[in-house]
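Q: Give me the 3D complex with pyridoxal-5'-phosphate.
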Amino acid sequence: MTSAKTGLRRATRMVRAGLHRSPNNETAEALYLNSGFVFNSAAEAEAAFKGENDVYMYARYGNPTVTTFEERLAALEGAQMCRATATGMAAIFASLACQLKSGDRVVAARELFGSCHHIVSKILPKWGVETVFVKGTDLAAWEAALSKPAKAVLLESPSNPMLDLVDVAAVAEMAHAAGATVIVDNVFATPLYQSPLALGADVVVYSATKHIDGHGRCLGGAVLGSTDWMNEHFIPFYRNTGPSMSPFNAWVMAKSLETLELRVDRMSATAATVADWLAEHDGIAQVRYPGRADHPQHALAKRQMTGFGSLVTLEVKGGKESAFKVLDSFGVIDLSNNLGDAKSLACHPATTTHSKLPVEERLDCGITDGVIRISVGLEHPDDLTEDLAQALAAAS
Ligand SMILES: *Cc1c(COP(=O)(O)O)cnc(C)c1O
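A: Here is the predicted complex, encoded as structure tokens.
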């Protein structure tokens, strides 16, 4: 990691950390679009394969452009080590699979991104791993589930799409007492607004596809943790199973980190404006935004987050029919299940991202047929509230 750069302030680190200029002295980070590397001698190759020197060998293990992205993200997260992956799901799957064996037990919040839920509910049990879901907001449920030994805990906060929070510090304490490694999917908070490692978690995972790229171009993911944990568990799995990030995507992601703070701060300020505007509207049954005093866990949000993010979830009156009318009437906001983009995007979780959940479970999570999730982008706030106004009028 670029220790010379770590004393600098965050905004500076985001444009300076991980920069290793080639002898050509290019200003911007070079893109090393290569898979292989040559050795200067047979002895150097022998030493590399023994792990005795620190040279690039093969891009599945590491590539200079990927290293730039990893060092820059680690400097933002305050983590000792980062490895970039091809997608967010590759990061999450590898962070679990690298440490689990048959007979182990995993405790997870039930409010997980759909594919994470699939890994915990469908894939891990096939391999003899016992998995238990708990309601993420319910500390008594975590306590009961963690009264028996566990190997890993997986949670997401704020969660998709209802923006429920998990008390990361409280759960980490119980998880550690049960012997578990705590993995936090920090996508919705972004590295700017929540630092799970400082709250007691062991591993942070990202889909870099979302706010980190932020322009809807590339898939990517990242796993961050201590050097000890990464070297013992993650690195051998990563090197031998191959979820590595492409150098091109790493170059896009590293450059995107330079503007992450500017983009996400603006998007979150607009999201707060949109949430307040929606709360005043007659056609709305409920608005969810962790920054609003009426969010059920606003006190916890203020305690464990330094900002409240770019996602706003609303429930329209009139169920699926109204929700579909609103979605089909948008003129500026696009319909997409993606998020964290410069363009505002909206989706209907009940029939898309969460359609595979059993109905009772979906409703128990609060995902009714009237729920719409909006990922607020970089458009002018007035254009978004005007678009919402005309769409809600068309639906009423
Ligand atoms: C998108 C997302 C993922 C999966 O990331 P991919 O890059 O699509 O593989 C995981 N968790 C959360 C919270 C997400 O939003």
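A quick observation: The mean pLDDT is 96.
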